[in-house]
Fold each of these.
Amino acid sequence: MKKIRLVLLAVLAMGLRANAQENSVLFQVGDVVVTADEFTAVYEKNKGVGAAIDPKTPEEYLDLYITFKLKIAEAYAQHRDTAAQFLSEFGGYRAQLAKPYLSDQGAEQELLSEAYSRMQEEVRASHIMIALDGDALPADTLKVYNQLMDLRATILKGKLTFENAARTQSADTWSAKQGGDLGFFTAFSMVYPFESASYELEQGEISMPIRTQYGYHLIKTTDRRPANGTVLVRHIFFAANNGAEAAQAQRAERSAQEIYTRLQNGELFMDLLEYSEDRRTKDKMGELPEFGINKMMPAFEEAAFALENPGDYSEPVQTTIGWHVIQLIEKKPIGSFESMAKELSKKVKRDSRNAIGAKRFVKQLKQDYNFKIDEKGYAYALKLVDMDAFENHTWEVPTRYQNRTVATFADQKVTVSDVLPFWAQNQQAEVGGKGEEFLRLQFNTLCNDKVVAYEDSQLESKYADFRNLVREYREGILLFDLTQDEVWDKAAKDSAGIALEYERIKENYRWDDRITYNYWVCKEAKDAKRIAKWLLKDRRDKVDELLESQEALSIAYTSGMAQQKDEPVLQEIWSMDKGVYGPTELSTGGYAVLFVENSHPSAPKALNEIKGLVIASYQDQLEQTWVASLREKFDVQVNEEVKAQVFEALK
């Protein structure tokens, strides 16, 4: 993606919105045609950015855009658009760009609103489940459905309570022990169909059989309450898990009770944290991560949410790992829809509810494209399948058959030659004598895929913004790769060309006069005088001894090569002649001594010092030469009448 952005900024990529202007040809470069509305969109998109950096008139923009299209024409001439690497990279980008157009955006917004609305309330539900594979065939599904319908009727007649039915017949063994009770939950806590049924039921009502990925459920909503939001708490903890010896369990309970008593007697919670046996939170003042419902052990969670005001603390609470005394730090309500929309969107996309939008989208496409199944054609295709071989996963497509139409939509056909190979590729070893059922499901999948693929192929013609965006990415990739070969890599690898370019531009990059220097700043004038005296006597060893002594704490030393303007410390004491200068009292305080070892008169900077600038300049030269050759190679035709209309509209 970074590649694309770089190219688009450099070459004035095409705009995203369509223009109402007549779709007339403005100019043509070789076989590349550019319309008036394309250019207008480019100009309108970029003029705001360009105005602040490098303003361009429409005439200047047109020249830039022609140059851009010359390069694109060259990329097509070199058949770069058919190269495997390009097709793979561009295909990946296009697939990403197409995603928003191949889903029901309205459905997503509805799901976001629904989820936020449900998050305002917590429901409590019980269930009875009969397990069933997610890909079970309709006949198996119907059998389980009828089984639960019979059980529901028995419960409604009063012959069996829901709770006892759950204990004896539910496949969910954990909730069965509680009579099917799952406790309170909120949106995204359960799979979507289960969640929806629980929220839509009246309190005490029993649902019809509800299908999820785990099987079929009878659901009974037993309670409702406003959402608790989240809490932030700290705790003092004493360990005693379920397997602890009696003495340890009693010690933990006594310790927790003692903490509670001391709190009631006025001691501060923070002062008692040192007794906590939770090593993970001890250094965090006992603070636990913020949590909502169904994130902690039930007893702990219930006690935490029961606290009302910051600073309130609980009685000792027993959980499966020990005893806790909990203090409330903060209660946080559910945030606004705007603040949660981004996170909700992520959850919806990860959740099973996201499939609703996809199903609705396909259903609408089939309606729009007048999708119809030719049942006679389908029956013919079905006769070509040897069911015994198919159920043994050994069936092969016959070599001879009539290629009849099986379904139609838009101007497309699904034929026997589409269906048979798809069936062969998706054979299953065991379908339990229900091969025809399985084949029908696979046929529906194939048709759905073909309808969506057809819609994908129509996106450029249906949506101007998508068409422009795809062209932007296509040409961006082509231009990046072409420019890299023709200019960037060529310049970077041509050492002789770089050397010649350096000689051509080196006078534009000169050093001012420079010196190689040593520089001391002393707090005391006497130290500066001693340094200057020793340097004049060529006793650098004495200077070094001074720096190594305790007195060096009041002396700062620097050395190097610099221009006067580069080092603020050299502004007040400077010379191009070799020698010792100072002490000089500085305006900022202290006394300076300068020792000039060598002087370096003004000269061009060395190649290694400005190589990046030289390469950039060489690239510019190569590009200018390249563009000139492209103008010779490709015929550029501008429609002056359309140009005048465009420029008038852009005033």
Amino acid sequence: MTHSRIRHWRRRTVAIAIVAASATLALSACASPGPDASSASDSTTPVKGGALVFDIANDPINLNPRATGSGNDTLYVLRQLVDSLTSQDPTTGKVIPWLAQSWTANADATAFTFVLRSGVTFSDGTPLTADVVKANFDDIVANGAQAAGAITALPGYVGTTVKDDTTFTVTFSSPNGAFPQALSSPSLGITALSTLKVPFDDRATGEAIIGSGPFTLKSYTKNTSVELSKRAGYAWAPSTYSNTGEAYLDSVTFSVVPEAGVRTGSLTSGQVDVIGGVLPQDIETLRSSKLPLIIRANPGLSFGLSPFASHAKLSDVNVRLALLTAIDRTTVRDATLTPDFKVATSVLAANTPGYIDLSKQIAYDPKKSEQLLDDAGWKVGSDGIREKDGEKLSLTIGYISNFAANQSVLEIIQQELKTIGVDVSLVSGTVPQYLADSAAGKFDLVYGNLSRADGDVLRTQFSAAIPTNTRGNTDDELNSLLVDQLAVADQSQRNTLAQQASARIIDLGYNIPVVELTTVIGTTASVHGVVLGADSRLGSLVDAYKSGK
């Protein structure tokens, strides 16, 4: 069977599967917390006061919500400082009101009219108004690529028209059906006008970030800690939280502790209250110590490899597809993680709206990989590494250690690819260096994931229309699908188009899924009300308290 016929057969099979998958999509769209997550819904009476110490793995780097690209720990902090226009129910996946009490969309999803909740103020005492929201959106667009954490939510932004203090309409030149869900991210959190008057680069320290969240910034010491204080008068958490008023805790300290073993030891000894980034090998240690775990599978892009198709060695689709089927995902998972982490079965994690099971298309088949490389003209050399036109098939994979298992996962992949004749070098570094090197095309593939409970995450990572996507997606069919899913406000229709886009991405070898990320947070028995949001990142700590057990 020729490669073109294989692609045609795959698309026909996927089209059949989409029909069947749509019937169960509502059930799989959003995962609920795992059985260890009981501490998040404890029925004890909340206790007011107290200080919570939360160990995180990475320095936040930049506390400007718009510039976030430094990982989940940054968003953990920002979620406490800024509120969003919308929220997303972690159980149902439904987009629900927050600072906006209601909204409507026109027929082609190019205009969205919002009505703000009354009585909301920022921590500097100024009120939330439609003019403030407009200024926030205009600021994002004005700063363009600098506002990497938010600009992808505003493709084709025309402007915001203010009707009165509480009503405004956001207009786009092309449909943007994912807009209400995108607004739920901390990156789109609304800040006061005083923040926007500060030059963009000067907002990184967080001193200028004035939000409407339940906490305010007391101090930020790089690579050491972020200290937050309770915000007086807070009274507008989303409906998924039980606390309708001020946070119970007086303060929260996020301590930067890169060593996972130190974080685990501090929790088991009672020196800290909560830890993030629990290593897979430490999960059973905490369970055996009777310490509660909050576990939730992350929606969005699975952890995987994204090739730079623009690079000569990866410009042939057969080479990319050879890498796709050369990885034994079950072996990788079992050797580096625990059963709490699922083997990837698609570009999107299984609990993401728009997911489709493509496990057959990405199944481990090293013989097939070898044949594809043979067909592409890469022949095995005397040292076992394939050659073509006098050049070795040597590739560089770039990654960051924002998830502790990344290096171990990649080392196994490195060995598996060597068995089919592909030489792989692994390169890591600081987050800023990784981002700069990736943008400059210094890697042949990058390894990572992105948590978001919406299939539009595919567009933000694979669309050629996104300036930061420089990996070489020139496929008209895929780019059309990624744009088309924004053209409808109906979620089920958008899901179907996301499924088709996922299938096309796999057909082209633009992504090589490996494992699904699962967020694991450990707490002491005295901590209650710590929850993970729909994106499996830390939610607001407005419900959190310590019982004194």
